[in-house]
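Private note to self, pasted from the team thread so I don't lose it. C-alpha cells:
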C-alpha cells in the first residue's frame, strides 16, 4: 500500500510501500499502539497512541495543530474502515509538515474529560460526549 511516512526523528517526509497490517505500522512508526487521526478528506494519520506519554525527542505538526510526538504514516480510509493508498502527493506533506524538537519544546501533556454514559443510545452518547468536553475545558 502507498503511504506517506513522516519520520520525525530523521526529519524527512517520504513515500513508502507498506503492508496493510497493524504489525507493519507498529514497526514503521516505532510504537506498540496506534491512534488514527482524520486530517482532511479521506486522509488519515496513523500515529503513536502513547506519543505524549513516551520519551519521544522529536515530533511534527501540520498547520494549525498542536503537534504529534513521534512518527506517522499517512494513508486513506475506505468506507468499510480499512486503509488504502494515500492519494495526495508526497510534496504536499513535505510542504506542510513542521518538525519539532520535543527535547527543547515539549508538547503539553494529554488532557482528558470525564463523563459517565448511563444511556447507550445515540442521544445518550452525545450527551456524555458534551459533558466530557465541558469537563475537559474546566481542567485546561
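Design output:
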Amino acid at each position: 500500500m502507498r503511504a506517506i511516512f513522516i519520520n520525525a526523528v530523521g526529519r524527512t517526509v517520504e513515500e513508502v510501500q507498506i503492508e496493510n497490517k497493524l504489525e507493519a505500522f507498529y514497526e514503521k512508526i516505532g510504537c506498540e499502539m496506534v491512534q488514527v487521526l482524520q486530517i482532511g478528506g479521506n486522509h488519515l494519520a496513523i500515529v503513536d497512541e502513547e506519543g505524549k506519554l513516551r520519551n519521544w525527542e522529536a515530533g511534527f505538526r501540520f498547520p494549525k495543530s498542536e503537534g504529534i510526538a513521534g512518527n506517522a504514516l499517512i494513508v486513506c480510509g475506505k468506507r468499510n474502515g480499512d486503509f488504502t493508498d494515500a492519494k495526495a502527493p508526497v510534496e504536499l506533506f513535505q510542504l506542510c509538515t513542521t518538525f519539532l524538537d520535543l527535547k527543547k519544546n515539549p508538547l503539553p501533556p494529554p488532557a482528558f474529560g470525564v463523563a459517565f454514559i448511563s444511556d447507550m443510545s445515540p442521544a445518550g452518547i452525545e450527551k456524555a460526549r458534551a459533558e466530557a468536553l465541558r469537563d475537559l475545558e474546566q481542567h485546561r
